[in-house]
Amino acid sequence: MAENSQTSTPPQDSGVSTPGSSSTSDAPVAEFKVYKPPTTSTTSTPEELPDSYFTLSPADLKAAQATLSARTRSLVDAPLQVRAQREAAEKAKRDRWPNTTIRVRFSDRTQLEKMFPSTDKIRSVYAFVRSSLRDDVKSIKFILYQSPPKRDLKVSDPDVRDLSLAQLQLAPSSVLLLRFEDESLNGTNVPAPLLPSIAASAIELPKPPSADAEPPKVEKPATPPTTTSSTSTGKKMPKWLKAGLRK
């Protein structure tokens, strides 16, 4: 990949390598992808929505309350599960999704994507993102979160840091948003503060399949015409049988 050739020189290795590493083999190269922000030619300008669109209806509030209640019940009932059942459920998740693809989206819609073992903790994602930032930004704190609904994934939160990516319900793939504590870095017109070598390797975001595209038509095999037993055998129906069928 382009990352290998661009991060192989000594001046760039120290910036891309993970914290505490001293060799280029630890650098996050050949294991991630960078996607450019979508352009106006590839994405349509969103239509401006009226304020009434954001006003929740009674049905919306009821649905949100039901979702919150279900989540609360699951948290309350979780300790009641037998330990063996929990371990079996976690093993099933690990077997089904051994890896988790995380895509981190910056405020300018640049996206940084990497695959992690599903047993990794969220701090592995933080370490990778921080190692990809410019040197003048590495010391600035940031938060990874999901939305909607808003869910901060802070390393300082014991309910987050001690769980694996699978336990955080991030497997098999998730998109995380990034917010810096320095608000000047959060503008939509502010380029993602990535290392120059990483930013230069950005590629176009794959286009999603068109919703208007018609599914391919499957031709049905021609069915032979059905024939009656009398025609298939070549025998004529007896007159007494015809008379019985008419009655």
Q: What's a concise summary of this model?
A:
This protein is of the alpha+beta class and 247 residues long. Helix content is 32%, strand content 13%.
SSE layout:
Layout: H1 2-6, H2 10-16, E1 32-35, H3 58-77, H4 83-96, E2 99-105, E3 111-117, H5 122-132, E4 142-146, E5 151-152, H6 158-161, E6 173-180, H7 196-199, H8 229-233, H9 239-246
Parallel strand pairs: 2-6
Antiparallel strand pairs: 1-3, 2-3, 4-5, 4-6
Would you give an account of this structure?
The structure is a single chain. With 247 residues, the chain is an alpha+beta fold. 32% of the residues lie in helices and 13% in strands. The chain is built from nine helices and six strands. It has helices spanning 2-6, 10-16, 58-77, 83-96, 122-132, 158-161, 196-199, 229-233, 239-246, and strands at 32-35, 99-105, 111-117, 142-146, 151-152, 173-180. A six-stranded mixed beta sheet has the order 1-3-2-6-4-5, with helices on one face. The longest helix is centred in the first third of the chain and has 20 residues, at 58-77. The radius of gyration is 29 Å and the shape is extended. The N and C termini lie far apart (82 Å). 17% of the residues are buried. Residues 1-30, 42-46 and 228-232 have low confidence and may be disordered.
